[in-house]
Request: fold
Amino acid sequence: MRKQHRTSLVVAVCAAATASGGLLAPAHAAPTATQRDGPDITELSGEEIAEKASAELNSAHSLRVRMKAPDLRLDLTLDEKANCSGKIGVPGKGSVQLVKRGDTVWLKPDAAFWRAQLGAEQGAAAAEKFKGRYIKGSARNDDLGGKGLATACDLDAFRAASGVRDTPGPRWKRGDESSVQGHRSVPVTRAQKKARVTMHVATEGKPYPLRLERRAGGNHDEIELGRFDRPVSRAVPSKDRTVTVGQLRRHFEHAQRDEPPSESV
Reply:
């Protein structure tokens, strides 16, 4: 069977990127929780800590999301206008550097990505042909991620997928202080369906959610958040480092015409 070029793997990767499963969904807190501003967040209840962390995430204009799951690696800076930059990947299937600005997207697959999509021989040829090059096109193009890409790059979509908009659930319980990314934090944990969800909240400065964890059976997913309100870089790849979707398609059409005819059995 002839393998065909499918950059649409990015669709699956990006869809997974927002599948945090409601990690931040707080239970309904007491009406006075938002009015309590103690000198130390560790004096608050688990419910109040979770509510404050959710409020910080809801008010952020941009942030960095790093996700580590069995079938996904993600490191993206994204904002409310669906601009983003970073890297997405699937273990064993390669990774893609990503830049999205407005309605334009640039994708730079690595050699492992090309091989996973095209097979060893054709993948190696494509990796060499487009080495160091970004594929540039419309963010609406399904071959470059389409709606899935736009969703993964949109901070509002991430917040909605994370369940921060006050959905009901079991109460959060506070744990012992620890540290995340070198910052002091306090974990709050609750059961959610068949999973155990933990949110690590900064105890110094604003109560940002620093890490989200979900454990279900043998699965353990982690999302780390940081760089709150730091703008997404406006830098985009230069013209001499890009190829268009049209050029990419013509390359593969030419390569397929040059293949020897297959023999029927």
